[in-house]
Amino acid sequence: MSKPISVPYETTIHVRDTCLCLAVQRAARALARRFDEALRPYDLTNGQFSLLMSLNRPTPPNLSSVASLLAMDRTTLTAALKPLERRGLVRVVVDPADKRSRLMALTPDGMHLLSEVVPIWKKSHGKLEELLTDGEHDRLLKGLKKLL
């Protein structure tokens, strides 16, 4: 009879206490819940807010540039756009310079909603910054950007 394969419990504790991936996932979920709650009265999720904000540009961006900014693949971005399109917040059009490409833009309703929720985001973000002291916000943001 062979000895069962096992991983010591100490390894589990070590991973729990030192794994950057796990720590970032847990923090991301906690942050997402905070912002989802703040944006709920506007029937918007934190991901949708980020997507709308990514479209707030002088000229309409293409799918690839927004997908890159949001660190998601084009298929996921296309799926995320659908509910915003149905609500009339975003418009997706054929790029006149390249018929195979699509450009995205906020509609007037999308811009109006974004202008309503930016103060909510600022307030929520301000509360988070208060939790972090002595330059922790800037150091954390700088560290996270290194991982992209």
Automatic annotation (TrEMBL):
Q: Which PROSITE patterns does this entry report, sorted A to Z? A: HTH_MARR_2
Keyword Protein biosynthesis in record: no
Q: Which GO terms describe its molecular function?
A: DNA binding; DNA-binding transcription factor activity
Q: Which InterPro entries match?
A: HTH_MarR-typ, MarR/SlyA-like, WH-like_DNA-bd_sf, WH_DNA-bd_sf
The membrane spanning regions, by residue number, are none
Where in this chain does the record put each HTH marR-type domain? Answer: 17-148
Q: Which domain of life is it from?
A: Bacteria
Give the UniProt record's GO annotations in the biological process aspect. Answer: response to stress
Q: Which SMART domains match?
A: HTH_MARR (SM00347)
* The protein's name in its UniProt record: DNA-binding MarR family transcriptional regulator
